[in-house]
Design a protein that fits this description.
Layout: H1 11-17, E1 25-29, H2 37-53, E2 59-62, H3 73-79, E3 84-88, H4 101-104, H5 112-125, H6 127-135, E4 138-139, E5 149-153, E6 167-170, H7 173-181, E7 185-188, H8 194-199, E8 205-209, H9 212-215, E9 224-230, E10 236-242, H10 243-248, H11 251-285, E11 289-291, H12 295-319, H13 324-343, H14 350-360
Helix pairs in contact: 2-11, 5-13, 11-14
Length: about 375
């Protein structure tokens, strides 16, 4: 199959001919390395489906590492270095003030499929969120979700008092506030740097999802996992697409790309669950202790969630989010809706999740105008 790669090097030619749609291979950066679920599952599934939906006319080449790092992704997409990439919105909080609202409310559900679907429906239909993506010259094509967050540590954490003064790696404001509320100190660094921080003793624990044990090889350094099932991470846009690239595609090809990315997310959501189970099995076999914490841990966690939700309106107003009360209620309703929809699935499979998300969200979108 003939392949033309869209990149910064050919941006001038593309501008002259005004025909990005003629290119068959788009350039992407899933960005978190070869072992990450994005590189192993999310992008490969999306690419396979895109080729199928377009009869091979469109494909995507993913560069999982080396080309663009997560903290450089906004500039990389804007400049055309890549046509698509993984945006972790927390790394660019000033650019995504409205789009980060679902992440602030992630403690509302422990179901990653429901939470990510609610976040996707919210952002797709949120005018202020769409304006944020337009401003950074991106098109939003959905959100995924990790497994719930647990504490992976080199020292045992069995009760709240064990957290006092510990240095723990966190990512994002919500997780940081929670860990500090529990009495620990936090260091905010990318999850890809957690292994080095743990192995050098810079931190005593990493706060993230259990698949991180395998993805970032934390299984080789941690000795304990404290199970708290806190707030899956949903503040991503793994398929953020360059606005000019999107505009160059026909409406039919935009539909194909949206379908393919929707399928990629469905595959990823189930893979997170499967990888969590695999990571747990391998960690237990290696002698890592899985700890069910004392009751005071759950009590203080509930206190934090209540406090966080009560103060959220003021916090969002301070960040410049308009009508925070209305937006919070909108997302709460979506979480309730999606909790019910996912619970009603006869069988949770890639196909059933993708079908449900497509019917409830993307089938209602006008792809002639979406993203413009």
């Amino acid at each position: 199959m003939k392949s033309v790669v869209i990149s910064a090097l050919c941006a001038g030619l593309i501008a002259n001919f005004g025909n990005v749609a003629a290119a068959e291979t788009l350039r992407a950066a899933s960005a978190f390395g070869l072992q990450h679920i994005n590189a192993r599952v999310t992008y490969p599934e999306m690419i396979k489906r895109l080729e199928m939906y377009t009869d091979g006319r469109l494909t995507i080449k993913d560069f999982p590492s080396g080309l663009v790092g997560p903290k450089d992704m906004v500039n990389a997409i804007q400049s055309g270095t890549v046509d698509m990439g993984t945006i972790i919105m927390l790394y660019f909080a000033a650019d995504y003030k409205d789009s980060l609202l679902p992440g602030e409310l992630s403690p509302l559900s422990s179901n990653p499929i429901a939470l990510s679907s609610a976040a996707t429906e919210y952002i797709v239909n949120c005018k202020d969120c769409q304006a944020e993506f337009r401003k950074v010259e991106q098109v939003y094509l959905g959100s995924g979700s990790t497994a719930p967050s647990e504490i992976m540590s080199t020292v045992p954490i069995r009760q709240v008092s064990d957290m006092e003064g510990l240095r723990i790696r966190t990512g994002g404001a919500l997780l940081t506030m929670f860990i500090e509320y529990m009495g620990a100190e936090t260091i905010q660094i990318p999850s890809s740097e957690a292994f080095e921080a743990l192995s050098q003793g810079i931190v005593k624990a990493h706060f993230g999802s259990i698949p991180n044990l395998l993805t970032f090889r934390l299984i080789d350094v941690v000795k304990y996992v404290t199970l708290i099932d806190f707030a899956p991470f949903i503040s991503d846009s793994s398929f953020s697409t360059n606005a000019k690239t999107w505009a160059s595609l026909s409406a039919a090809d935009r539909v194909s790309l949206a379908k393919a990315t929707n399928d990629g997310y469905a595959a990823a959501l189930l893979s997170w669950q499967e990888t969590a189970a695999q990571a747990t099995e391998e960690a237990q076999a290696k002698g890592i202790e899985f700890i069910t914490p004392a009751p005071d841990f759950g009590q203080k966690t509930s206190e934090f969630v209540d406090t966080h939700l009560k103060g959220l309106v003021a916090a969002l107003q301070e960040k410049g989010v308009g009508d925070p009360e209305g937006k919070i209620e909108t997302f709460k309703a979506l979480v309730k809706k999606w909790d019910g929809l996912v619970a009603g699935l006869d069988e949770v499979t890639v196909e059933s999740v993708a079908k449900l998300r497509w019917e409830e969200i993307w089938s209602k979108i006008d792809f002639e105008t979406y993203g413009k």
